[in-house]
Task: structure prediction
Amino acid sequence: MKYTQGQFIITEKTAIARQIYSFTIACPEVAAAAGAGQFVHIRAKGFTLRRPISICGIDKEKGTLRIVFEIRGEGTEAIAELNKGDLIDMLAPLGHGFTIDPGFRKVALIGGGIGNPPMLPLAEAYGSKAIVISGFRNSSAVILQEDFRRTGAETILCTDDGSAGIHGFVTQPLKELAEKGEIGAVYACGPMPMLKNIAAICKEKGIYCEISLEERMACGIGACLGCACKTKRNDEEYFAHVCKDGPVFNAEEVLW
Amino acid sequence: MADLSVKVCGVDFKNPIIPASGVFGYGREYEELFPLNKLGGIATKGTTLHLRTGNLAPRIAETPSGMLNSVGLQNPGIDHFIDTELPYLLTKDLVVLANIAGSTPDECAEVAAKLEDTDVHMIELNISCPNVKQGGAAFGTSCDMAAEVTRRVRAVTKKPLVVKLSPNVTSITDIAKSVESAGADAVSLINTLLGMRIDINTGRPVLRNNVGGMSGPAVFPIAVRMVWQVANAVNIPVIGMGGVSSGRDAIELMMAGASAVQVGAAIFTDPYAPVRIAEEMNEFLDSKGIASVKDIIGTVKPW
Result:
């Protein structure tokens, strides 16, 4: 547990797809403490609740974080109105991130839509050991493919309508890889039905699987108990909290 | 530097600011950001006899200038509080108000009785939680039930007893008078207002519990009105809360009659809110040449 709250300068802002923005933020202390799978809790001007956004890049040398987020409502819209040079108010870094184990020979990193950004720090960590499977609605929603390739990871692109890459869901290439027995671990973030299917495939094949969940949050640090997620601990049902116990959970702990 | 200290039911607070129950857990998560001794006190997460798992998610929704919650009193139970959380808080040089709840008057009394042999400073009896099916607000919306549960808890505790009132009633002054006559040493108000949001794309309520408690700046004027009315109706101290997000708000609530002020949803927007609010109160008092915050309690001059 090591987080701070403060205002930090946005050093870069890019629109990378329709309604999707990338911010680079100068925040050396936060970057130094941050790990893959954690998130930042951003104040949206005029709103009571902060908005949790996953971390897409950590540059400890430059002291910067990168976030990539989609405008989902008025809160994220207000955040998207910030510009390069503006201050962004963050409580960060928060949450329990991914476990990175150099012992895995091959890992699959699976992102659905705006679930792709948290996969990038994992791709940086695993490099050529990683196969990134990214799924999007259509070609205009595709993001981060170049960034993934730059890490040395193999990339597989899927779209729901076939307008780019494989026509179909991310679970298809996962099944094929799992059949070959090459994958030691799966990390995933995206819509709940996708995560549920991935968890089921991993369970069947005996593959270690971590998933990153999303929930409406208030405090972001485990105090208010707003972001409940039903899990199993020591064979007992337990309402874990996405902000503190997660956002990353061992898929076997989650009760769908 | 104005004197921010206040006394409520004989208990000294170094400043009048108290994070409200439910937003602040048992304080541990916020100590990462600032030392807890900067707070006047803490109202701990509502605690029941046994562990409660709470409601299904989503439990949180944004509203214009506020929010809804339907956590449903998730808590680890009073024994865990006494064994683990209370000893930690008692080392922090602040007033600890143990917020307790139960689904029957007996359960409330049993929880309070367990606290009698501890060093907790005050008990805040929650008769107003809108998010549980039994007890909670059901106690707080009838004068007879409110008096009954207060009497039962009063009978088992000598600790200063604060009863937390619901605004979801026809006359909050009648409820306040009932709990006063049943032995409450103070009242705190307002708990959240019952609200609802619907996702018009799915036709489903945003909250899985359908309805939840509304808080945040939007409810502040209602809190001011109710604190003022109750302060004029009872002879016990009033702890005010409801949408306070600045030092000016806290001053306003004290002018309405509050002896201390709890801060809730503002902490989600700005985790330093309780500390900032105390500092802003000090600046205001200094700018007006008022030596002590005690001098503004109930000083509103109504038309």
Remarks:
- The longest helix of chain B spans residues 273-288.
- Chain B touches chain A at residues 22-25, 28-30, 32-33, 45, 53-63, 65-67, 69, 71, 74, 206, 216-217, 265, 267-272 (CB under 8 Å).
- DSSP finds ten helices and 16 strands in chain B.
